[in-house]
Amino acid sequence: MKAMILRATRDVAPGEVRRPNPAHDQVLVRMTHSGICGTDRKIFDGEIPVRHPLIMGHEMAGELADGGGRVIVDPCLYCGACFYCRAGLTSLCPQGGLIGRDVDGGFAEYVVAPRSHVFALPDAIDSRSAPLIQVVTTCMHSQRQINILAGQSVVVVGLGVTGQVHAQLAKARGAHPVIGISRSAWKRQMAEQLGADLTLAGGESGVRAVMEATEGRGADVVIESTGFLPAVADAISMCRLGATLLLFGIITQSEGALPFYQIYFKELTIVNGRAAKGEDFPASIDLAARGAIKLDPLITHVVPIAELGTAMEMLTSDADHRMKIILENELA
Questions:
Q1: What would the DSSP string read from start to end of 230-253?
Q2: Are 105 and 147 contained in the same domain?
Q3: Number of helices and strands (H, E) in the chain?
Q4: What is the pLDDT of residue 318?
Q5: The total number of structural domains that make up the chain
Q6: Are residues 97 and 64 in the same domain?
Q7: CA atoms within 13 A of residue 291's CA, in its CB half-sphere
């Protein structure tokens, strides 16, 4: 079969590989659309070590090769037998892995996946936007850990794709007000169109505005989705006493300045999320199918999968006017 093969760091090109042969507990999926994630970019740049050659891609939608219909693939693998899996914490399985990072993924004609990891797509969700369901599941998994209640004030710091999803999920849970923070006026406008009650540019003035919007207390829940320490510091300052801080953005720095006394004085609950679980897929599919969250506005670029290298470069350019890049599989 044809595939886009990462031969070495920053070296991706089309090639021919053997079509995978599914085992008895696996299915073969013909890829139609894939999304590009920041993780793919880090693999591409060598920031995440992988074996080469590798077929990347973990935001995957396609059709069962046996004619069983359209599906979305859960890329998170787990052993099912360890302490964490037996406790229902499959996303933390030490023997687990990610399709597209640890085994070949969806930037190809076909991908093989465990039968338990494919979920049927309803007609209400088109194939082009379907890869975004995987993004929704990671956000949902994190929000389920903090259990946002109706009427709670929620601030989302960072309005990239995951921030936009977090804001929509908070609204779907009945949060009010939902406040989005971004330096980008374009992203703030998008968040407002998708239901945010208020958007702000951030910084010290943003912290003051959050206080004003929450009667001087600060927010009940703050979701940090950038992974940058200065934004984490602002997020801490936006929290009320006893608030919950969800650290969703991946923080790669090993040291830095934060208002640690505020964490102590405010008695904050700090939670982070790493990956989704299978149970997050049906709920995410349902929300998208009902229109409770909107995926199409988050797609700003659709390119042929053969242009994967160009698409990778797009991830670091024009960030103020770019959201999700979807690849259309034209390799067949």
A1: HHHHHHHHHEEEEEEEEE-S----
A2: no
A3: 10, 17
A4: 67
A5: 2
A6: yes
A7: 1
Residues 99, 140: one domain?
no
Q: Report the DSSP beta bridge partners of residue 16.
A: 2
Quote the CA–CA distance of 249 and 281 in Å, as a whole number: 21
CATH of the domain at 195: 3.40.50.720
Write the pLDDT tens digit of every residue in 79-94.
Answer: 999 999 999 999 999 9
Cα 51-54-60 angle, rounded to 5 deg? 130
pLDDT (tens digit per residue) in 162-200: 999 999 999 999 999 999 999 999 999 999 999 999 999
Contact call for residues 56 and 47 (beta carbons, < 8 A): no
What confidence tier does 274 reach under pLDDT thresholds 50, 70, 90?
confident
Name the residue range of residue 46's domain.
2-129+295-328
Do 123 and 93 have their domain in common?
yes
Whether residue 282 is contained in a domain is answered as: no
CATH assignment at residue 31: 3.90.180.10
The number of residues in the chain equals: 332
If you write DSSP's letter for every residue of 253-305 in order, what string do you get? -S-----HHHHHHHT-EEEE-----TTHHHHHHHHHHHTSS--GGGEEEEEEG
Residue 283 within a domain: no
Residue 277 lies in a domain: no
Instruction: Render pLDDT for 100-144 as a digit per residue (tens, 0 to 9).
Output: 999 999 999 999 999 999 999 999 999 999 999 999 999 999 999
Q: What gap in Å lies between CA 276 and CA 243, rounded to an integer? A: 24
Tokens linked to 127: 């194939």
295: closest CA among 168, 173, 112? Answer: 168
| pLDDT number for residue 332 | 54
Same domain, 163 and 91: no
Alpha helices in the chain (DSSP H): 38-45, 83-86, 132-146, 161-172, 185-193, 203-213, 229-238, 260-266, 280-290, 308-314
- Look at residue 56 and tell me if it is in a domain: yes
Alpha carbons 165 and 161: distance in angstroms, whole number: 6
